Amino acid sequence: MAKTNKQKRHNVVTFKPYEQHQGRLFMPSFEELVAEDHIVRLVSRAIDGMQLDSLLNAYEGGGASNYHPKMLLKVLVYGYIDRLYSSRRLEKATRENVNFMWLTGLQTADHNTINRFRKGQLKDTIKDVFAAVLLFLVEEGMVRLEDYHIDGTKIESVANRYTFVWAKRVSGHKAKLLAKINALLDQIEAENEREEAEAESKDKGEGSGDRSAVEDSARLAQTIADLNEQLKERLPKDKVLRRKMNELQDKHLDKLREYEMHEEKLNGRNSYSKTDEDATFMRMKDDHMKNGQLKPGYNAQIGTEGQFIVNFSIHQDANDMPAFKPHIPGTTRLN
């Protein structure tokens, strides 16, 4: 036991020198701090080699100088790779992260500048930037555009999930309203023809079968205008008839136009969100409530080769099968 203790006394723990505030004659450069094979270098080289005329032309002359769009684009692209999406987190990274500081050359654009660039100049040129990235990958031999793999994913919209409009509900309410409108028109025309029959001392019958059913707001508006012309002498005197005409004009016509507006926005979809009219309600993979709740979102179809995204398209249909055919031509708009 004594021998063991002696051995322990000779096994002295040593530490590397730690002088936090030690001055240096030659400070290390960022080139030394960023590894040669780090992906941040690939991002920088790729964007430096792009033709970004459309992005440069998005700026207006005059005023104060701007941060270079290539620098801001590098920050966004590398930020997305590093899963940094918030403009405030990107601003923080440009002040604290060595890789971002190397990308920006120690320039520190604030979060408002980053956000304005993302929503302004970059928004209208994103397809050109995507095409330039793809061309760079082809020229570097990283992509041959021969092996194509496609998969879809649902992306939740930032819209309020409780602002839904359902196609079946709109269709049902519209059908009930049209039935009510046509019944009211039949009553008005029947009363009008009875008055005319009494005035001329002959029975013409109700005659409501001569009028085709109203099916849209344009036809209803024209019918109301025709009836107002026919009944212009009676309306001031007949309160019941005037009340029915006012109900058609002030209540039913506006409601029918509202349903038609919903149908136009739906455009064949089963639903849309009032706060993001392009979003359709879908079942998401990430369902923390575990109740199959429908949420406003988009169906993104992504084509890849060698783990690089070479094509994408955004769709409003929750099913992947209808999205496949329009995806193939390479469209990047809503389908």
3D structure, described in words:
The protein is α+β, with helices and mostly antiparallel strands. The protein has helices at residues 2-10, 30-33, 39-48, 53-56, 69-81, 87-96, 98-104, 111-119, 126-139, 167-200, 217-230, 239-266, 320-327; strands at 149-156, 164-166, 271-273, 280-283, 294-305, 308-315. The N and C termini lie far apart (81 Å).
**Which residue ranges are poorly predicted, with pLDDT under 50 across at least 5 consecutive positions?**
201-209
Radius of gyration over all CA atoms, rounded: 34 Å
User: How many E-type strands?
Assistant: 6
Query: What portion of residues belong to β-strands?
Result: 5-15%
The H/E string reads HHHHHHHHHEEHHHEEEEH
Largest sheet: 4 strands, antiparallel
Distance between the amino and carboxyl termini: 81 Å
- The 3D shape can be described as elongated
Q: Helicity level, as a percent range?
A: 40-55%
Structural class: alpha+beta
- Determine the number of helices (DSSP H or I, runs of at least 4 residues): 13
Give short descriptive properties of this protein.
about 325 residues, alpha+beta, four-stranded antiparallel β-sheet, 13 helices
Write a brief caption for the model.
The chain is α+β, with helices and mostly antiparallel strands. The protein has 13 helices and six strands.
Task: Please write out the topology.
Elements: H1 2-10, H2 30-33, H3 39-48, H4 53-56, H5 69-81, H6 87-96, H7 98-104, H8 111-119, H9 126-139, E1 149-156, E2 164-166, H10 167-200, H11 217-230, H12 239-266, E3 271-273, E4 280-283, E5 294-305, E6 308-315, H13 320-327
Antiparallel strand pairs: 1-5, 2-3, 4-5, 5-6
Helix pairs in contact: 3-5, 6-7, 6-8, 10-12, 11-12
